[in-house]
Known about the structure:
Radius of gyration: 29 Å
Number of helices: 2
Number of strands: 0
Shape: elongated
Helix content: over 70%
Largest sheet: none
Distance between the termini: 90 Å
Amino acid sequence: MSEKKPSEKVEKKRMPYLNGFIVGIVIGIVIGWWFKPPAVISVEDFKLATEQGFNNAKDYSREELAEFAEELARKLRENKN
């Protein structure tokens, strides 16, 4: 009886996953090549919406920080007296 080395066992277990990974990448590339993304979505509209959302979040954060600083200053004044 010839026993297999541990390294051969690991290689045999790893090969199906490696083959599946390679086949999945090839299928993804082929599908991506044949089917282009829809032209319905305008890149400029997406950019403007993202920029507007970022600006709104920035304004909200600025207001929250100002309110926190004012509240902290008020508490410090009260504790000082």
